[in-house]
# Entry
Amino acid sequence: MPDASQAGSSAPLADSFGRRIGSLRISVTDRCNLRCVYCMPEDIPWLPRAQLLSLEELARVARIVVASGVRKIRLTGGEPLLRRDLPTLIELLAEIPGLDDLALTTNGTQLARLAGPLRKAGLRRVNVSLDSLDRENFARMAQRDVLAQVLAGIDAAAEASLAPVRINCVPMRGVNDHEALAFAKLARERGFEVRFIEFMPLEHGDRWGRDVMVAGSELRQRIDAVHPLVPDPGCDEHSPSRDWRFADGAPGVIGFIDSMSRPFCAHCNRIRLTADGKLRTCLFSVREHDLRELLRRGASDEEILARLRAVVATKELKHHVGDGLYVKPERTMSRIGG
Ligand code: SAM
Ligand code: SF4
# Structure
């Protein structure tokens, strides 16, 4: 097993269970213009700007992490497109040697304006969150009446070749789960990858429950009954998503991120950086590790890498939702960076 304390060496980042870290999620802001009912409360105080890592600080951490073997970076938030100068950050990241995959998860409301500039800056693909194809239902879930803006954003992403366009949908029972077939139709007609993400207990408040969450297997059966599905042979073992294609050869992919009903912790190769510079080794971590202080007191790259290795060594074996040991993290999804 790699020695996680080999600071400064070129040994890959690995945790104490031998999982090699290949993916970093960076939250670039905690702010958002929507209030999805499974995520964010109406009245949440934003982090003071001075606490956010600057674009240069974010890019520096990214360079160090990529030099130690991370190949994928995804930007998220909050709503990442609200971060001023996001295309500049994309430019800084796109030029890092060794970074194979640079992606972004967005609510799509600003994409019509920004898809072109982001593509030009070096972004290759986007995931757009879309929980309903019905205007009123969308407005109930996002607590903002902006479905038309999001659909225009998705069109702009496709036109700008931010491909494949992926759609993320969080199904909630009795709220939007009846739209599963409409989403399958969207995938088939537009060649999109639609991913259903199981609702996780990381929301503000206490809406989560096994009765509200809809397991991926249930949706898969419902879609399969109308449009038979076959496993996608190209599905990556480190991807949290189990992907399926249409048996009749129609384009599009349907994926299921079954973090609750079928956890994939054994294959998890991710770490996360919050907008205020805290490293998290798991979405469900109750501990965070401050990098900002190191960055701002002039630490060398070697010192930062040593800290990264020490933190990665503490990565949790698995999450504890459902086994009686679960403690909800203090930060909710929009502040962690989903
Ligand atoms: N604002 C951007 C967006 O909505 O795509 C990026 C941040 S958002 C936190 C990232 C993803 O997390 C979205 O696809 C969202 O649907 C998902 N998400 C948020 N809260 C969740 C929860 N409690 N359970 C499952 N997924 C959640
Ligand atoms: Fe905002 Fe994304 Fe959370 Fe919705 S899921 S409230 S868009 S951060």
Summary: The chain is about 30% helix and 15% strand. Residues 32, 34-36, 39-40, 77-79, 107, 129, 333-334 surround iron/sulfur cluster (ligand 2) (CB under 6 Å). The chain has one domain: 4-336. The first strand starts at residue 23 and ends at 27.
